[in-house]
């Protein structure tokens, strides 16, 4: 009840004299659970009890992993009477400066559970993460959960993990899944975290790296030029700086000159990749303030916005479903177009292949394949793609 209602909801129920245990009582009943660094075997034991009450759809889940920075220090764990200071990730050593957390999350129903964590140093061997991921997937299979996907950001260790798992994503070839370690007939899809991808793409643009679109896209959408740049955004910010009514009120200079912490905020990235900014740029072109080439940047910003909406849907309206077959086919066609777009565009003066291109192609391909299995084989009515982020 406390988990469902949250702390404030639980307090409200207690204030209305509902016979519920206090927060301290709940903590006391859980304090015996072992939570030392590593795979949390006791948590799997309790999770197995919960799984027995789940429907087959609710047992489909995603394994996510992420790394957080921690302050190097020596701490005493009162429960185990041990000092905590060193790396606990297998085959690694040294002082702990980061923690890698592994969490399960439901696809059909919103539930989350941390199932493992390790202390790590400044560098991590992704091959070790591969072994941990497979171990967790096997443990999940043993209690009746099916891990359908693994999601992470595009850090070097995670990309090394993908390579070890056999994941390949380039301009001409994409292998987005690996064989389930407990069931050879099943596949586990790998996703690059969509919010991280949007932030990375934003960084390329605001850092002045032009994006050159392929000729096929330029011709298909009748674009005036192939170049997407930050200059139209700067012109828009300058144009509306002294105006009371701004055509793009959520866009300002701070979105183009980011601080270290602002770079981590997805909202700052979506302030650029928004329909409002795209419409404002078109307005400036119609008014003769910006050149026709601005329309290419406007089209690209709107395209990324729509891709993000489809890849991180939180409501059935934007979910991938077959309620409206025409709308569904349009969404699938659009996602395939995005794969083609990022497979052939170039970023920066060097025109070298960027990790963000691999990430967008990988996640989009995985989503196209994974949602088909959920809709056709697992009897899902719709797929909320945000559950894979």
Verbal overview:
- This protein has 389 residues and is α+β, with helices and mostly antiparallel strands.
- Helix content is 43%, strand content 18%.
- The protein has helices at 2-15, 23-30, 41-51, 126-142, 156-165, 194-206, 215-220, 231-240, 266-270, 275-286, 294-311, 325-344, 355-376, and strands at 38-39, 60-69, 75-77, 82-84, 98-106, 112-120, 146-152, 168-169, 174-175, 177-180, 183-192, 211-212, 227-228, 320-321, 346-347, 382-383.
- The strands form five sheets. The chain has a seven-stranded mixed beta sheet, sandwiched between helices.
- Helix 10 packs antiparallel against helix 11 (294-311).
- It is globular, with a radius of gyration of 23 Å.
- The two termini are 26 Å apart.
Secondary-structure element pattern, one letter each: HHEHEEEEEHEHEEEEHEHEHHHHEHEHE
In what range is the share of β-strand residues? 15-25%
Summed up, the helix count is 13
Report the end-to-end length measured between terminal Cα atoms: 26 Å
